[in-house]
Design a protein that fits this description.
Layout lengths: L1 E4 L4 E6 L2 E6 L2 E6 L5 E4 L3 E3 L1 H9 L3 E5 L5 E5 L8 H10 L3 H28 L4 H19 L5 H25 L18 H24 L17 H6 L4 H13 L8 E4 L2 E4 L1 H15 L2 E4 L2 E4 L2 H14 L9
Parallel strand pairs: 1-5, 2-6, 5-7
Antiparallel strand pairs: 2-3, 3-4, 7-8, 9-10, 11-12
Helix pairs in contact: 3-4, 3-5, 4-5, 6-8, 6-10, 8-9
Amino acid sequence: MELILTTFGTYLHRRGELFVVRIKEQQQEVAARKVRSILITTGASLSTDAIQLAIEKNIDIVFLDRVGDPYARVWHGRPGSTTAIRRAQLRLADTEAGLRLALGWVVRKLDNQIRFLGEARSRRSRLSAELTRRIDALRVHRDALDALDGLLDAQRETIMGLEGRAGRTYWEAVNLLLPESQRFDARSRNPARDPFNCLLNYSYGVLYGTVERACILAGLDPYVGFVHTDHYRKKSLVFDLIECYRIWADETVVGLFAARKVKPELFDPLHNGLILNKQGKAVLMERFGAHLDEQIRYRNRRIKRRDSVQLDCHRLANDWIGRGPDEDD
């Protein structure tokens, strides 16, 4: 589970093998063995004993800003990486194999989007023609990406252009799935200008933290990207890999609208936008957490959806240094 601290003034400390969350006169105990991450989204204080327990149990403490983007984390000083993995990662970006790898992530995103819209079309016959037109357009972009060859540096601009056009088509389709009164004009990030973008941005922020954690545990360098180029303080590989998993946030947020769970009281106004308040974060994270914890089929076994990120990253690391997959993969 993820231990999420959203109330201002929360105090987290340790009692033996338990985390104790205290809010004013109330307190809750949580066994450390049940916690995978601690997410802190507002003003809270931690004891050094709580931090030590998290380090001992390989639990990362992630600090999220008000729109859900992780801006810092407390992590142990023993990353499960090797120099060989990072050297291989750097070399691979300059080869044709690096292009195929990068294209695989983008194509996987489009395949997820096509599947999601196809499932929506089967439930909403009145939208069939409009969704079909956009699904067909996404397939054209997907096939164009899959047909690229050569080196990544030469094709990066083409990839970004095709991905951008596909994105505009996809968001047009997603907009059709929302109640008419709650549709959005365009994707907006900082700040979000409508409830849909507000919920989606926060969900993506949580996913960034999940992907970064998986990279660190697998020994991948989060800052060495493929499609997204190296830049000071930019976690380029995280931006690359998250494309494979964004669909989980999309499904969650569209599902909240379909279930009529999105209410004005979940948001606080900002200048030119909106932000999720405590109630909004609770509504979103309850549903998103349940979606991530859902069992899926992964390489002939059943695992939680969220755990597939870690397994994918370990497989990448093993492939890059020529190590075979684990026996249980």
